[in-house]
Amino acid sequence: MGPLITNGIISESTNLFLAFIIGIGFGFVLEQSGFSSSRKLAGVFYGYDTVVLKVFFTAAITAMLGLLFFSLFGWIDLSLVYVNPTYLTSAIVGGIIMGAGFIIGGYCPGTSFCGASIGKIDGMVFIGGLFIGVLLFGLGYKLWENLYLAKFMGSPKVSTSLGLSDGFFGLLLILAALGMFWVAELAEKKFPREEY
Amino acid sequence: MEETKEIKKTKYLNPYVGGVLLGLVLLAANFVAGRGLGASGAIKSVVVTTMQTVAPAASTGSGFVKEFHQSHEGNPMKTWLVFEMLGVLVGGFLSGAIAGRLKVKVEHSPKITSRKRLILALAGGVLFGFGSQLGRGCTSGSALSGMAVLSVGGFITMMAIFGTAFALAYFFRKNWI
Question: Which of B29, B95, B96 is closest, CB to CB, to A22?
């Protein structure tokens, strides 16, 4: 059955319409969780507000489990679901640059749109920055093309790379997340701060 | 005092409930489109369109534009992520309207000025935008969506983003706390 577009169940226009609807859900949940506030987001790096960690890992686990169950019930063909390719060098270097952008700017791209949608001027300026950053990458593409394409490893899954089944690795990930949630709750008690 | 604290604490959704809902949105994206959520991809569409409009001749030779068209057919603005991000603006606005959080303002720590906050927001945005292209997606597209499908690259990018932000947090503490 799923993915609907890959299996030709819905048209391209319906797909784009559903993208808009899914986007509304995405923006709504982010804002409801407090991701429209840069000071709340940055809190995770100082321990006073760990909402980012809790929402992020709960979401990753929920979606992962959902995909595994959907596959088990025959509702989705996992072989047709896009697995992000791994280019080792650029995954690390890109992540490091994004991490610096996160602590300096207080947003990531999705959350900056969320902040901008409720009137945060710092969110709008961050989006302006994103545009400049992507444009710089595009204009100077030749300079970092080799770095961008280095160490291509295909689209490996962590579970397969470790020689584990998806389900068992999923269980380990859930246990790791529970451990992190426990630390997060402790940190919030240790560095309490007023809600932003 | 105790009462105001209680109200302030409950103004946002419980993070675990928010996480489950976000996970279901991500699951829906995979079920419909066969791929996860994203954000920086929409900016890339805007940048490609800008390059093609401003300098049509130069952009055809650009490796960046070519690479984009290898994975996207037709009009760069008519992509899944562009429509999804327009939805994010609507969804965020609706949530803010319901919660009474709609307000035009610059949010910053009392220790820094609005001007400094905006300069930092711009600088952070430039870095994040650039990094998201190298990393083939940002926190949404690469880290979160990648983790849900157990992608090795997704896990690595997630660890690099959060690890770097934690490592640098001390140096930027005055901007936040």
Answer: B29
- Identity of the residue in A86, A113, A130 whose CB atom sits nearest the CB atom of B152: A86
Q: In this predicted model, what pLDDT tens digit does every residue of B125-164 receive, in sequence order?
A: 999 999 999 999 999 999 999 999 999 999 999 999 999 9
Count the residues in chain A: 196
Q: Any idea of the CA torsion for A110, A113, A117, A120, to the nearest 10 degrees?
A: 110
Alpha helices in B34-151 (DSSP H): 40-54, 56-60, 63-71, 80-99, 114-134, 145-148
Q: What is the pLDDT of residues A3-49, one digit of tens each?
A: 999 999 999 999 999 999 999 999 999 999 999 999 999 999 999 99
Top residue of A30, A84, A166 to mutate, by most chain B CBs within 10 Å, is A84
Residue labelled with tokens 């190298």: B134
Which chain B residue is nearest to residue A159, measuring alpha carbons? B150
Give the pLDDT band (50/70/90) at residue B177: confident
Question: Which of A55, A67, A193 shows the shortest C-beta gap to B27?
Answer: A67
Nearest chain B Cα distance for residue A128, angstroms: 7
